[in-house]
Amino acid sequence: MTDSPRKIELLDASYTYVLEHGLSALSLRPLAKATGTSPRVLLYLFGDKDSLVRELLARARRDQLAALSTTLDQGAHDTFDALVDRLWTFLSAPEQRSMVRLTYEAFLHSLRHDPGPWQGYAAESLRDWLDLLVRAQPDTPRATAEVRATRALALVRGLLLDLLACDEPERVSEAAVSGG
Question: What are the DNA-binding region positions (predicted)?
């Protein structure tokens, strides 16, 4: 079943809203007001708030994967370290802060004892990103590629958390590119 144009329009507007305001404290009234609709229409189109959150999380993952794939494809002939640097440069750019913040918010919520609509987000996101980094190493044995991808991803994610937590982008970026 395909989604109605109105549902797609409201999902897009809702995604823009949560990029700015986050998902944790999402309330249908402010969301409806910001997207030019009513809570009743949102509930009609998405079923309930949890279903809307799940669709927003799926949208976030799709957008992230598309952006990361494009970023990695641009350096398809680079070394793996150069690809990781490219990934860092893309994800640490100021215009990506809202997407990165939303990713961490969803990631951490999905790790709670009762994750609700965030169930599985961290594991699915991790697998998506690892697969991209493994595929970026076509001439490397899979086991080695997975280890390298895991290490690179852990470094990038840790540095991104540091970047979100502080107002020192130069220091964090220097740590990302210097390798110690």
Answer: 27-46
